[in-house]
Amino acid sequence: MSKQFHRDEIANSKRIQKSATPKYDASWYIKWCASCFILASMTMRGIPELAFYDIVLSLIGVTGWMIVGLLWKDRALLLLNGVGIIFFMRTLLLDYWL
Question: How do residues 18-28 score in pLDDT, each as one tens digit?
Answer without folding.
Answer: 677 888 999 99
